[in-house]
Amino acid sequence: MTLRATVAELVREFRASGRIVIVGASLAGLRAAETLREEGFTGSLTIIGDEPYEPYDRPPLSKQVLKGWVPADHTKLPRMREVDADWRLGVAATGLDRATKRVRLADGEQVPYDRLLIATGTRARQWPNPTEAALQGVHTIRSRDDAEQLQKALAESPSRVVVIGAGFIGSEVASVCRELGIPVTVVERGSAPLVGALGGVIGEIAAQMQRDHGVDLRCGLGVSSLEGDSGGHVRRAHLSDGTAVDADVVVASLGSIRNVEWLEGSGLAAGFWGVGCDAGGRVFDINGVVTDSIYVAGDVARAPHVLYEYQFLAMEHWDNAVFGAEVAAHNMVNLEPHYHPHLLLPGFWSGQFGVNIKSVGVPPFGDEIVFTQGSVQERRFAAAYGHRGRIVAAVTFDHGKWLEYYGKLIERSGPFPPPPPGWDQPPDMKPMPAEFPDPRVPTAVPDVVLTGHAPSERTAEFRPRRH
Amino acid sequence: MVEETPWQQALRYANRANPYPFYEELRKTPVSRQPDGTFVVSTYREIVALLHDPRVSSDPRKCPVPAGAQAQGSGESVAEPIREVLTEPNIITCDPPEHDRDRRMMMPHFVGPPHAPQLICDLEPEIRRIVGGLLDDMKGKTRIDAVDDFAYPLPVTVICKVLGVPLEDERRFHHWIETALDALDFGPEAASEEIRSRQAGARQAVQEFGQFAADLLDRYARQPGPGMLSALVNEDGPEGRMSKGVLASNALLLIFAGHETTVNLIAHSVLTLLRHPDALEKLRRRPELIVPGVEELLRLESSVQFWHTRSAVEDIDIAGTTIPKGAPIFLAYGSANRDPERFTDPDELDLERRDNQHLGFSQGIHFCFGAPLARLEVQIAVGEFVRRVQNPRLVEDPPPYRHNQIFRGPRHVLVDIDGIRD
Ligand SMILES: Cc1cc2nc3c(=O)[nH]c(=O)nc-3n(C[C@H](O)[C@H](O)[C@H](O)COP(=O)(O)OP(=O)(O)OC[C@H]3O[C@@H](n4cnc5c(N)ncnc54)[C@H](O)[C@@H]3O)c2cc1C
Predict the structure, then answer these.
(1) Does residue A161 lie in a domain region?
(2) pTM score, two decimals?
């Protein structure tokens, strides 16, 4: 047999009877499993998830679920097809042995694989003081259980809610509180809500929107401690300016932590920013060498992106989980040159204070912003972000129908400022600084992060070891 | 004589039944300039790009060279008589922010959740009843006209109910619509004596139709009644109320659109299925395929073949061409929906086609307002036709077509049948 025929035979055999293990039974994990079957993989498929539930959808948790419209257990993800997998739910993966190709589980079992997909996502960053975090009434929101508990707490009409951190999720929680008629104080260390994700210019608009809806918004401040009553229930938040706010519910929305601890010692490029991989989802080892058998997708992945100067992008976005999973799954059962790249233009949506906010591209990559359509005053507008004369992102407030247009411009590296629209032009179309916080200043961590280094900013000294 | 462009040929009445070979030719130049200065866009990607381009206006008042002007040889647009009467814009003939505001005002009275999420689904029993009745009426017949006996009566009845237009007036406005449509020609035949003579009639028909809508709205202003028009006249939203003129213009649009496009879609669906007995049989065996099936029928024979009120308000570089500021743009949906770059085997009927993002309802901010209603009507009508009509056979292929090119559809579809099942 020729080498080529042998390889083809091996691929066929793997597709027919290989063993694939997916760790992380949520959006990315499920979509990957479906794609594997779609691509004709008939081997054994094991899906490991530490949550006891079948895959469910998270975006509704901070929206419809909190409002009480949809019960938390009604967020199950629709199945696109039968996946015929061995589901190991309610048990965490605790380790990875690449030499023997086994995933270790919390219950002591070991699951062998030929190919592995890491889809463990992120978890909510907890309030840093464990005693205070354990007070009743202190919440975070990432899982179905979190949302259910917080929904119950809100349904009891608390006298006031304090939201710590005004990123997307914190802002959505504040919005729900106002819709439910609950007084809410938002404390944000940055200069405005959403600054990390969308910059100060848009942040100012978001701030005004919150205030118009009766949110007590305190920016440039942190919460220094939480105080409980004798029954162990939170009653007060102390702020960094010495003031205090009485509240019965505190929601810490401090960004997220990537679930990579179980990969410790595996020799993979896994760390604070996630699991490094190439644009095809193939994981790098710590030396930057691509592995053949391990893939990653979703919130926990970080991959170089051609549109953003090949910087590594980590995206905590729904679309990214879906498309990343599809690409990784495709590549798991194919060979070069049939690999697909995951070159998604990042996109995000959020609903808050009656406004539908959407963005495309990577706003923090931009340093300038220009309003391109609509009216800021009416909070229906589109704005574009620019970097060195090209458009790199756009954001819309209740103008989502135009996103596709900006997406196309970004994909083509169109000029910044972009060509003016023919009509519905805002009065002022002058580009201005987008006002992203200095990345070294601690603030709510944005959910798209550029984690690469420009050569001029190299901070590590490279010293090859001499033998 | 100068040779006709593929677009002009596509628009000739003789080619109404099958303009697709000409579209195929046309797509070789995705953006092609016509002798009259109009830019015709025929490929999927380019049309989608323009549908999402804020430099493309839908407001004919912003277009210095009205579309189809030279086809007339007179510098007057073929749409002129209608435009003269319809001075106020409706949601398809204006741009944001007016467009957005007006559509926003209309939405809650139609499908806009959270205001009226039930409106369309609640119509289902009524639609089933009408469709059932139409099929019952065919009992005992051996030959039916799928247009007159089936495709036409349903949408008319439904739109009258939704809008609150008395069904008794249907004959009158049907006549006005037909007269206006027959005079609207964008092809080489526009200059003919016949079409020109129809224009005067069209002017009058639109005038009377406009008066009819205005009277109806006045009546509702004095005494509120059922339906969307009365609600629009009487209910104030957060942004106030539409002006009378704008409201009348939109009322015309809704009566017209709710009535014209769905008829053609049902008629074409029946026609297409009769041409593909295997697909018809498959649909009979697997009725759940009606949902993707209708999307496929909509792709294959899009109800609106192209749209004519768009123009460039800035220079637009696209597909190697610059559409200059001020030029009229025709977006040829009927062609895009068969673009092989986007759809595999585009001329094939595949009831289970995947990723069928056709342009049958357009895209972008002018995406068909009535799409959810049209979908429900056609799904029920075609589904029931397939289920109940025994051994249907097409009598004449191609059937005679109506004159208009935008709202392309058969005038009659004669079908021989063995009977009607219960
Ligand atoms: C409240 C909320 C609102 C959101 N709203 C939006 C929105 O409006 N728009 C948008 O684009 N995105 C939104 N997102 C983000 C979106 O939900 C995520 O991008 C998406 O869920 C990522 O999917 P994933 O599969 O990568 O990760 P996850 O959904 O986080 O799934 C990872 C799974 O792996 C499990 N796991 C972790 N470690 C282990 C282990 N060691 N062993 C076994 N299992 C493990 C986790 O418990 C989890 O079930 C929101 C997220 C949240 C939390």
Answers:
(1) yes
(2) 0.87
